[in-house]
Design a protein that fits this description.
The complex is a heterodimer of chains A (313) and B (530).
Chain A: H1 2-29, H2 34-39, H3 45-54, H4 61-73, H5 87-122, H6 127-141, H7 144-158, H8 174-207, H9 210-217, H10 222-259, H11 265-274, H12 278-306, H13 309-312
Helix pairs in contact in A: 1-12, 5-6, 5-8, 5-10, 5-12, 6-8, 7-8, 7-10, 8-10, 9-10, 10-11, 10-12, 11-12
Chain B: H1 2-13, E1 30-35, H2 50-59, E2 64-66, E3 73-75, E4 78-83, E5 89-94, H3 108-119, E6 134-141, E7 144-149, H4 156-159, H5 170-176, E8 191-197, E9 201-206, E10 226-231, H6 235-243, E11 249-250, H7 255-263, E12 267-272, E13 277-283, H8 293-302, H9 305-313, E14 317-319, H10 333-337, H11 344-353, E15 357-358, E16 364-366, E17 369-370, E18 372-378, H12 381-396, E19 400-406, H13 408-414, E20 422-428, H14 432-439, H15 456-467, H16 471-487, E21 491-497, E22 499-504, E23 507-508, E24 527-528
Parallel strand pairs in B: 1-10, 1-11, 18-19, 18-20
Antiparallel strand pairs in B: 2-3, 4-5, 5-7, 6-7, 8-9, 9-10, 11-22, 12-22, 13-20, 13-21, 14-21, 15-16, 16-17, 23-24
Helix pairs in contact in B: 8-11, 9-12, 15-16
The chains are: A mainly alpha (313), B alpha+beta (530).
């Protein structure tokens, strides 16, 4: 098991290098001159040139990338070229809120997704099944920003039940819980559909398996058969899917955080990219990529934990 | 199974609290100002953005202040001032009761330091020209400042009312270095810096000693304990927040929402007729096609400005029937009369007579050259619609406008090149001379004079408009500049943005100001009723 985890960790090194390289090159492809951004629209050409030199932007690309990597190895992500704040400092303040949002979204959407999928599979072909399937299709089709705006409009604006601008406090406070509710409902809302669909398919498959028939033949209750024998075995592909979807959830968080002014990494990434703040944008790319890689690593480990057959391999 | 489903539904229900318990009004005695974007920093000498200026006005003061008419200068940190006969020496008598937020007394030395810092080469202020041709700024005693120029600069007092000329504390600047305005600030304004989370919140607290506010307000001291400047980039979220009490006041209202907001009983909208922020299209006059004055005149005649502005701004802007706002200091009504009127047939006739004949595809040609030119600008819904409307109108007279809008991060770089034939942009100004001296002076090519307009008469007149001793002479010179620009159709003026400030029900005393785009200025009359 440990060897497996170690191997997977080693594999993340070239992946991260690729991410860093692509992230760096993408920033170069953008035809923006950060020096002009910093100097302002009325600045003279001399001033722009001076700032470019100061930022090291007059160096060849490979030199810039080399310097960037060297600093990165020392834990230095540089400073924002917009406001001079250390990238690590600003990132540090945003990772927590993003993790909170992810946690809150998954907290309610995974149980509901699994429950809906199981119900649909158990009563296959019924009205309930069709309803859940329709709900899944609708949930999978609704863009995150639209769901967010609708929730703001109905719950926040018309009913005035919940706030929708920013983070009220840590998750364990009343203000924090209130302020995270709508963003979490939004982000989790689009997560339910794929989980429900995958659970339905997996449970259906397992319900027809021999060990389930055996369990029934032994006289176990339907509850025990479904929960302990069918659902547990069906969870392996569901966990894989959840892992993959969490990656996409990070993408959804970018939109959700912008719509709800949630002070997370996603919103920081949008702000950094829009303001051509290269170091900050690269910092957010690193964090989001690292998040994606870590989630996949955890899924791999969970996969092995859930399916003892994998341990041998 | 039923229990599982029930538990899931309960967990969902737990996120939906009861309505009454969760009214989301901002805390009492805290004003939440909603805005669209943050500034890069809050250093008056280094920041040029409106989003920086609107906060700096609250955190610091200038020697003189500007009334709501945007013309009348009033005392600020200087309670009086005199100008020498040769117009080169300004003597400011400072108030003696002013302190910085840290309690330190403000003296003439701080004024000298702040102005010198603004114009110092190492500060690299992109707007240091606004300080005028300084010879020396000196303190003759603790409360007297002499501001000596190498030549007269009639605009000086107006320029000194802008936030770039804010007086800051030397010790704090030197202590924070490059992080001044990022990690802290120490000014003499009605509110003091408490904290800044970039792209999120900037928190100011009441300056307890402050009672030297400009006499343009009923109150000379702040009426609110805390001001939070909160960034909400998404327009719908921002407006919904204002209406539900999650924010108190904003000037960042998309044009389509102004009329709707004015009908909302819980929102009070104030406006400012003396708001100088204009949209225009400028021609790079040394580029093929647009170098022909006939083409520029035809463009001015062929675009239905009124219809365009109505369609794009929904009444939240006025059609620009002159190069500057009629309420601006130095506005020339005669120049406005020279503006070509919308007349499609006359535009066609003009082009015909000049030899621009329709080609096979309807686009005119002359000497083998097509009447086709590109326009660069910043990508936004408004600019997209405006340029498309212009494109459609110009097509009717046989002129092809090729639109190339760039993302805001790219646009300023692109607008500094010589790649384009014309460009669109918007800008704030405080007087006709302020705007024209920046954009029409030949010395300012290629940026900010992006038209490459280099006319000897214009340059001389602009020099006169800036340096002449008599107000009449200055007014005459800037009037002539306006006439030259209008006669040559260097621009196609498009729209004059209106300033709206929308305030929630609990906010009293909200009155739009608009100096350099800042809707609230010092905000001294703002108070909260609950």
């Amino acid at each position: 098991m440990l060897r497996h985890v170690f191997q997977r960790l080693l594999m993340t090194v070239p992946v991260m290098f690729g991410v860093l390289l692509i992230g760096f090159l993408l920033m170069q492809v953008v035809p923006t001159d950060p020096a002009i951004v910093r100097a302002g629209p009325t600045a003279s050409a001399e001033l722009v040139q001076e700032i470019r030199r100061e930022l090291g932007l007059d160096q060849p690309l490979y030199v810039q990338f080399g310097i960037y990597l060297w600093r990165l190895l020392q834990g230095d992500l540089g400073v924002s070229i917009i406001n001079n704040v250390a990238v690590t400092q600003e990132l540090g303040g945003t990772i927590g809120p993003t993790l909170e949002l992810m946690f809150a979204s998954l907290f309610w959407s995974i149980p509901i997704g699994i429950a809906l999928g199981t119900i649909a599979a158990y009563w296959r072909g019924s009205v309930l099944d069709r309803f859940v399937t329709a709900l899944s299709v609708a949930g999978g089709s609704v863009p995150v920003f639209f769901l967010g705006l609708m929730l703001i409009w109905v719950v926040g604006f018309q009913w005035q039940w919940l706030p929708f601008t920013g983070r009220g406090g840590p998750l364990w406070t009343v203000e924090g819980w209130q302020s995270i509710a709508l963003p979490a409902l939004t982000l989790g809302g689009v997560f339910i559909a794929p989980v429900a669909r995958m659970t339905r398919t997996a449970v259906l498959e397992v319900l027809g398996a021999e060990h389930v028939r055996t369990a029934r033949a032994k006289g176990l209750t339907e509850r025990a058969v479904v929960l302990h024998h069918a659902l547990r075995n069906a969870l392996i592909p569901v966990v894989t899917l959840i892992g993959l979807q969490i990656g996409f959830l990070l993408g959804g968080a970018v939109v959700t955080e912008t719509v709800f002014s949630w002070p997370g990494v996603g919103r920081l990434a949008v702000g950094a990219i829009l303001s051509s703040d290269f170091p900050m944008a690269q910092g957010t790319i690193i964090v989001l990529s690292l998040g994606f890689i870590l989630v996949n690593l955890v899924v791999d480990v969970l996969y092995v934990a859930l399916d003892p057959r994998m341990r041998g391999g | 199974m039923k229990k599982t489903l029930g538990a899931a539904l309960l967990s969902l229900a737990a996120t939906v609290p009861v309505a009454d318990a969760l009214a989301q009004a901002a805390p009492r005695d805290t004003l939440v100002v909603l805005r669209e974007y943050d500034a890069d920093r809050y250093d008056p000498a280094r920041s040029t953005a409106r989003s920086a200026g609107e906060v700096i006005y609250m955190m610091s003061d200038t020697l003189v202040s500007l009334d709501f008419d945007q013309k009348t200068l009033k005392p600020g940190l200087a309670e009086s001032w005199t100008v020498s006969e040769d117009g080169k020496l300004y003597t400011f008598k400072l108030r003696r009761d002013v302190t910085f937020c840290d309690g330190k007394k403000m003296t003439a030395a701080d004024v000298v330091y702040s102005i010198n810092r603004w114009v110092a080469p190492e500060t690299r202020s992109p707007v240091k020209w606004r300080a005028g041709p300084i010879k020396e700024v000196r303190a003759t005693d603790d409360y007297t400042v002499e501001y000596e120029l190498t030549e007269p600069f009639g605009e000086l007092l107006y320029q000194l009312s802008l936030f770039f000329a804010s007086i800051v504390d030397k010790d704090t600047v030197e202590k924070l270095g490059a992080n001044f305005g990022v990690q802290g600030f120490n000014g003499t304004g009605p509110y003091c810096w408490q904290s800044w989370t970039p792209r999120q919140d900037l928190v100011l607290t009441k300056h307890p000693n402050y009672n030297w506010g400009p006499p343009v307000y009923q109150n000379r001291s702040p009426q609110i304990g805390k001001v939070i400047w909160r960034i909400i980039p998404e327009a719908n979220t921002r407006l919904a927040a204002l209406q539900t009490g999650q924010g108190d006041i904003t000037q960042y209202i998309p044009p389509f929402a102004v009329a709707q907001l004015q009908r909302v009983p819980t929102v009070k909208v104030s406006t400012q007729p003396n708001y100088f922020w204009d949209f225009f299209l400028g021609f790079k006059v040394d580029k093929p096609v647009v170098s022909d004055p006939v083409i520029r005149q035809a463009v001015n005649m062929a675009v239905n400005r009124d219809a365009l502005v109505k369609a794009v701004f929904f009444g939240a802007a006025d059609p620009a029937d002159a190069y500057v706002n009629p309420n601006t200091l130095g506005y020339d009504a005669e120049a406005a009369k020279l503006m070509p009127q919308f007349d499609l047939e006359a535009a066609k006739k003009l082009l015909d007579e000049a030899g621009w004949k329709p080609g096979a595809d309807g686009i005119r040609e002359k000497d083998g050259q097509r009447a086709s030119f590109n326009v660069y600008g910043i990508q936004s819904a408004e600019w997209r619609r405006m340029t498309e409307a212009m494109q459609a109108d110009l097509r009717r007279v046989g002129i092809d406008l090729r639109i190339q809008l760039w993302d805001a991060t790219v646009a300023w770089g692109k607008l500094a090149t010589q790649e384009f034939d014309s460009f669109v942009m918007s800008y704030p100004y405080i007087s006709a001379t302020d705007g024209f001296a920046l954009y029409f002076d030949g010395a300012n090519r290629p940026t900010p004079n992006r038209m490459n307009w280099n006319d000897e008469a214009t340059n001389k007149l602009l020099a006169t408009a800036k340096t002449a001793l008599s107000a009449e002479e200055r007014a005459k010179a800037i009037a002539e500049v306006q006439q030259i620009a209008t006669r040559n159709n260097v621009w196609f003026p498009i729209a004059r943005e209106k300033l709206y400030v929308a305030a929630a029900q609990r906010v009293e005393g909200a009155r739009a100001h608009g100096i350099y785009g800042a809707g609230l200025y010092k905000g001294l009359d703002l108070r909260l009723t609950r």
